Amino acid sequence: MRIYLDYAATTPVDPEVLRAMELYLRDAFGNPSSIHSFGKEAKLAVEEARRKVAALIGAREEEVIFTSGGTEANNMVLWGFTIARVKKGGHIVTSSIEHPSILETCRFLQSLGIDVTYVRVDRYGMVDPDEVRRAITPRTFLISIMHANNEVGTIQPIKEIAKVAKEAGIPFHTDAVQTVGHIPVNVDDLGVDLLSFSAHKMYGPKGIGGLYVREGILLLPFLRGGGQERGLRSGTENVPGIVGLGKAAELAMRNLTEEMSRLQSLRDRFIKEVLARIPGAHLNGHPTQRLPGNAHFSFDGVEGEALVINLDLEGVAVSSGAACHSRHLEPSHVLLAMGMDRSQALGAVRFSFGRWTREEHIEEVIEILQRLIMSLRRVA
Hints:
The chain is of the alpha/beta class. The protein folds into two domains: 3-11 and 256-379, Aspartate Aminotransferase, domain 1 (Alpha-Beta Complex); 15-251, Type I PLP-dependent aspartate aminotransferase-like (Major domain) (Aspartate Aminotransferase, domain 2). Helices cover 42% and strands 14% of the residues. It has twelve helices and twelve strands. Helix 6 (158-168) links the parallel strand 5 and strand 6 (172-175).
């Protein structure tokens, strides 16, 4: 039996999502910009999906912009605010544990003359709102802090950070790719101005995601062309993908409370058993303020990559870091930012549970994990 415990990297497409997409892959293939019946049919499907996504995050339909995924949405924000300021410069505040789509873009913007402050985190991977406040300067034009970390699962105090941003009159963006569809996300409750999300993290297809842009926020377009998506994201809409995202949002909204509770129970049992049964196991991330399906550990005397490979040979899929850069044999920037030493960071593994994770999987994985860690330590 193969056991998939890497839901934070990507999720399987839900069968209901696939069924919803099939019509628009096969028969209803029109371009939403066309004025004939084929185009109108596609346009109606796009707007229905927009309504479902808006309902999931508590936004208005016109505030939802479809993109190719979370990376594009994050780039849209950073570039959209920077384009008008490249000649005169400015300042961005972000954190040291952001997704590479934020960090790498910020580093490139620095080469263009934009100043960036990377706010530190504590040993749990938590951002202190006061650190954000202290980082603000008169030249700050954007604050971007992720909602929950994609590696250790720590959920950030976004409401408090949003208040800091609002007091300073600075637009606030959050990368919510790991949270939308998994925990309650309401843009007004959080107080954010912009929010990124992705379909393939919540049982939708890859290659589609979106950006919430609060009405009144001036964002210059990152992609220019035909003026689709309120002129903010040109290009013919990915209708099947958008329909799939809409259906995934609908399913997430329907099952959110029940699924959260189920995953938290599995997560807590897994964490308790691993810490009790495997000496030298250390939980990474916040002990309580963490994603319901995330359990991230470091194991003394074990290299994370080796453990991931051996678990895969046993039929268990996990990750030693973020999927986007897990092929690099370097310690996680997130763990290093949390104060972890290099050797401990290299011994880290992320287990992430999802819709098809069951109780029996937990016990089987723990038994395999115990055996493999003992074996790897003997070899070391």
